[in-house]
Amino acid sequence: MKRKTLIVLTLILALIFPMTALAEDMPPIPSIYKGTVVDQDGKAVSAGTINAYTKDTLRGSIDLKDGKFSKFLVTGDVDTINIPVAFTIEINGVEADATADPEVKWQEGKISGLDIPEIKLTVDTSKLPDVSGQVSVEAANDNFTVKVGNTRQIRVTTTPDNAALSYQSDKTGVATVNSSGVVTAKGEGTAVITVTASSSGMLDGKATIRVRVSENPIEITVTPESVKLDAGKTQQLSVTTDPTGTTKSYKSSDTKVATVNSSGIITAVAQGTATITITAAKDNYEDGEDTVKVTVTSAGSGSTGNNPGTNPGTTPGTNPPGPTSFSDVPQNHWAYGNIALLAKSGIVGGYVDGTFQPAKNVTRAEFTKMLAIAVGLAEEKPAQPKFSDVPGTLWSYGFIEAAAKAGLVTGDAAGTFRPNDNITRQEMAAILVRAMGKIDAGTTNASLATAFTDDKSIAPWARGFVVSAVQDGLVGGYSVDNTFRPAQNATRAESCAMIARLLEKI
Length: 506
What we know:
Structural class: alpha+beta
Number of helices: 8
Helix content: 10-25%
Shape: elongated
Radius of gyration: 31 Å
Largest sheet: 7 strands, mixed
Strand order of the largest sheet: 3-2-5-6-7-1-4
Number of strands: 25
């Protein structure tokens, strides 16, 4: 009997001691607090960060929202038990002491039966910057892939829109970022870029962007970069990839707000925000990712109508995408569908009087900007302009430089671009073909001919490009006399038609 008792006691001790040792090895459970923050007059402090300290060691931080906070985790250790917790309120880098009522002494939290203590913090706000709220900052895309050596422009929107921006990378060996928000991919890995938006009299706002860098990734460009829709409306995403020929998939973070189909057509469901993630895959390449934020602004009528992309397989314009809102572009206009598609995608816009002026000629600068936006080129603003007649102060400078860097546009022998000259149909054909990646088409197809009656009027330098543009279905002739009219100025309507066709091809 004694032997059995001894065995039982031994087993009990064997179970107890390991559990005790395990408990000693476990870190203390953080305390959790909730409560309010008021100023010296008892008025709620609308914005700021609460910091908690014991023995001058920072133990936790939490942001205020409308003068309240909840589930504030404050860490500690065995030497912290029963030590008073000191609180401060921080606004734009300035801290002021806050008095807790009741006084807080740190106690280890409990796993079950958690009863969160509620406290009121009072702070003398005269020692803090006077803020009226927090700057709102949102990134157009918060997750993208870049090839080592390439660059990518970060685009953000802020409220107020004149907020000053600063950028910081957490891993400069993976990706650096300059003061203009241009990310340069340095080495394989993932870096997080933090964007800080500041405005006088307001609390700084922050946004983070995840940058994935690889030696052999698929890079994605999506147009538009962000979408705002009424519920029931749709939006077609235009996605281009480098390399081409990729398989694309789409996913919504919240299908109760917005859905997206396999063709990249977003449907707004209900008021709120959602993120569309676009993934591109191809053998022997690392998958590429990009994101588009969708904001559904109102409940809407629930009817999708006849919006962009409802029949994406057809030739642009054969399935009109819905009202354009331009008074001079009726639904029976030959380029109605193309104009509506590009307008709703943010590629083209109208005039203050509500017109589009489809028959108006397009300048070389205007067409270059339209195309740059359509194919997703970020503005480039080097200190030294490429063209002598395109100074940095010109409204289209960044787009012309970006298109030139990508090899889509060139200047003349004198080093000028002639931005204010009306673009000709053969010049437009050349730019479109280059946008399809056929940079040398002007040489390889220079000896070929078209079936147009004015074929001989095509300039020698443009012949190959025109032939390629016709073969690829980007441009056509005039049926009335089977002419191409290469030197004729192109109109705004013709520009929309050609760019819409390009977007179907790439």
